[in-house]
Design brief:
The protein has about 400 residues and is α+β, with helices and mostly antiparallel strands. Helices cover about 30% and strands about 15% of the residues.
Length: about 400
Amino acid sequence: MAGRELLQVLLPGNAAILSASVPSAASTSIQDLIVALLTDLTNNKQLKAAFGSHFQPWASATSNDFESSEKWLIDPHGQLWALQAVQATEPNYEWKEEELRAINDGIVPLQTGVFGFLRSLAEGPKPSDEDGAPLPVADLSSPTAFSDFLLSSHLHTPRLRLVCGAAGLRVRLRFGHVPEIYDGWDQRTFFLPADAKSPEAAGVGSLVTEVVEAVCEEFGIRRVVLQGSKSARVVYALCPLPATPASAPAPMPPPSPLPDNASLPQLLSSMDTSDPGLMFTISASWLNKLGTVAQGFSKHARRQGSNGVPLAPAPSAAPGQPARSPSPTKQSAVKTGVLGLWGSASVSKATAALLPAAFSPAAKNASRSTGDADLDALSVELTSARLNAEEDEDDAGDKHEDLQR
């Protein structure tokens, strides 16, 4: 007789964890785990806090109580439920374009064996024999087949998230001007908890600022940039999608951000579409405060993905090293988009006094042209604004000294 194993999954917002006991057999499926999570009475309080009125307790747990599609289970009340694989990424991760293209919404098919899937996440790609065929799957029916794995990994770092398919609780994000992620990438769907206006819902994780933080954490997005001895925390934001397609360059300046404390489920529910989307990008207000430290962002900013932009020749690999594939996001060609703006000039008044008389911020910026007239103009405007602000500060200081005399 097979034993049972305790599995834990995250809830949207990453503020709570659910547990369920399931048979430790190879036949135990994702669907079995979802049913166990939703019918365990000890989980009701946390489910209500996460999903509010979207969750209603089940009276029983027989196969006649629910329906299902390939990836979504439909409970007796008509609500959709699924398990999403959690994207576990180390901070400041340098994404490869092929890695991003391999990511989808993360929803695991219901008939997938849950233990085999968790093992694949922990161990990575399975090895193959000499003929290229996958090696036989180990016997998973033993009650102790997963004890070491669960105790050492899964109980500490859940790799599955229970999500609800209700309107307003999911959004597809398009990335723009985000380090190490190419502009226009929009393959990931993010699932949200219900907001505090839903009966019994806690609303934790439903605010715009909380979603931004969760996205940064899940994808290891760079949040601190360095330039010499200076550093700054990059501020990201959610914005309405631009009218341009994902294949077009991300707009600059970025669209006006949504308020940090706005309820995202309420906003998404008001959208007249079954697949609502938003842009994840740098904050426009942070961009307006660019200083020399922002130049450190230039080595991390990413261009478009493979969308017809000519590629630079791939650098030759050193002996004994694998060849590096050409990527449009890592070229030494003319800096475009925000990449050029990060490298724009920032000249203080003291430095300007040491420059030739013919020097002007516009001339210096022209030598660092981004290839985009709008970006060049914005770069010059930001530089001029900094110079004017510094002049005003110096004039105020001179007047203060005169009064003291």
